[in-house]
User: What shape does this take?
Amino acid sequence: MDYSAFFSNALDGLRQEGRYRVFADIERVAGAFPRARYHDGERVRDVIVWCSNDYLGMGQNDKVRQAMHRSIDLSGTGAGGTRNIAGTNHSHVLLERELADLHDKEAALLFTSGYVSNWAALSTLAAKLPNCVVLSDAGNHASMIEGIRHSRAEYRIFKHNCPDDLARCLREVEPDRAKLVAFESVYSMDGDIAPIAELCDVAEQYDAMTYLDEVHAVGLYGRRGAGIAERDGVMNRLTIIQGTLGKAFGVIGGYIASSAPVIDFVRSFASGFIFTTALPPMLAAGALASVRHLKESQWERKAQQDRVRLLRERLDDRGIPHRANPSHIVPVMVGDPVKCRTVANRLLDDFDIYIQPINYPTVPRGTERLRLTPSPLHSRGDIEQLVEALDEVWEQTGLARAPRTRVKMPQAAPAHAWRPKEPAMCTACRQLLAMSSDRAMLEAHPRA
Ligand code: PLP
Assistant: This one.
């Protein structure tokens, strides 16, 4: 076999479709976020980053940096082993306690990333629970899908954010089987938010366990930054809450929080936890400082929401189409992979604005977009500059405009009880109807 030709042809295919991935060589500058240095071949220039998942700029927070410096000086660099063999450092123990307290659960367990925590926890639970069926939201992240697949348990996919469809799937499962409902709170590409209370109503009705990925919500929502479940007052209804330390908390690592027996079970059986070196103590120390800070401080969350609101208003003023949602994620829709790359290149080359184009398979074909993530550290001036630049590039690229009216942002689903018989549509679908730009999804709803 001509191995080289095989690899080159596959990559050429990606290039022809306009979705070959080019990484921007960015050098983050502590204290200057969201500004960074961009290494453009031989040239280095300053750019402003508009697509970071360091949502609150905690990656440069003084307390976090100091905690990490102190930890390196005290404990050195690596953990020195797996958690079982010489790798459990006191800062891991403190961080797990802090995370359990954050989510009001008995215990928590750390992993090396959010991806690994989903993969390891879901694959272990679904494989070991007797005769388990997993009910998985159609929009779930790759890490959850891979974990579920790896378990080899039977799984069913319910329509995205749709309690009606979850109930339909659960009705078809024999009552005595173990059932695990897996979903996210904030979906990373569309920025829509799950009706958690309504999904829990259904899960409880069918005696199913629930697993909630709060990766794009921890640090950002709720009085102490525990996520959407905290904001909606439903944390106690979820069996397992999963989160990351690598986005709003600004470091790296993942975790689950749950009852003591569930955590002990995953700790004892999950190969993705057992057979890998523990997080370096300095990372646990930095994450601990970040979680503690965001439990108390409201400034970052409030300022971020303010910037998100302002950016949406300005995009509406210019007719730059963006998908309506009730979260901090602002997807600016382009709808073509080549144009999406062109817009991103022009923003970078002509305006020193870095936004990574998002193409298939991260999003469905035809919904290519620029995913904007305003932070508390983007100034109002930065927003004006971004919108001016987008306006000009939109014109040059001949992209369609949205009607110049304010898009009313849907409110998140209220934490009310779900009544299976009364509404013709669940809250999520009513929200979509209100937005009305997503006709295809609505048409897919069984009752719409
Ligand atoms: N879950 C969701 C919904 C995600 O979007 C991601 C990453 O973007 C992950 C899990 C993985 O988290 P991490 O980046 O910490 O590995």
Observations:
- The pocket of pyridoxal-5'-phosphate is lined by residues 113-115, 118, 141, 143, 184, 188, 213, 215-216, 244, 246, 254 (CB under 6 Å).
- Confidence is low (pLDDT under 50) at residues 413-425, 431-448.
- The radius of gyration is 22 Å.
